[in-house]
Amino acid sequence: METEIITEYISDRRLLDSLSYIRGAMEEIWASDAPRIVQDYTDHGVKHSERLARFVDKLLQAKLDKDFSEQEIYLLFAGIYLHDIGMQCDIVKFPQIKTKAEALGAELTVII
């Protein structure tokens, strides 16, 4: 369904292919068997992205007196796929991310 929504607004094969790759990476990161870095939290994976895509479709259909370019619509959908990826940032596997975040003022606790 989501692909049908996207192709309703985007015809540029380059943008469609890019969204396909982004979605594929998001699906791998949020796969049901993938380890959850942020535990016991609402799932922000594939189903969540699909819900958001339906909301974007409703907004685009409403027009709001604005015609969006294919590039703008591409960015909307890419944003849907990418907006929660940081929740899956593994600071045990990538300690340099934890160090940088703490240098910026974050307080992180590692639970193993």
Task: Kindly describe this structure.
Helix content is 57%, strand content 0%. By secondary structure, the chain is mainly alpha-helical. Helix 2 packs parallel to helix 4 and helix 3 packs antiparallel against helix 4. It is elongated and about 45 Å long. The chain is built from five helices and no strands.
* Number of contiguous helices: 5
* Sequence stretches where pLDDT stays below 50 over 5 or more residues: none
Helical fraction: 55-70%
Task: Give the assembly state of these chains.
Answer: single chain
Strand content: under 5%
> What is the CA-based Rg, rounded?
17 Å
The N- to C-terminal Cα distance equals 38 Å
Average pLDDT for all residues: 81
Instruction: Tell me the structural class.
Output: mainly alpha
H and E string: HHHHH
Extended strand count: 0
The coarse overall form would be elongated
**Major sheet:** none
Short summary:
The protein has 112 residues and is mainly α. The protein is built from five helices and no strands.
Key traits:
single chain; 112 residues; mainly alpha; 57% helix
Would you spell out the secondary-structure blueprint of this structure?
Layout: H1 2-9, H2 13-29, H3 46-62, H4 70-82, H5 95-103
Helix pairs in contact: 2-4, 3-4
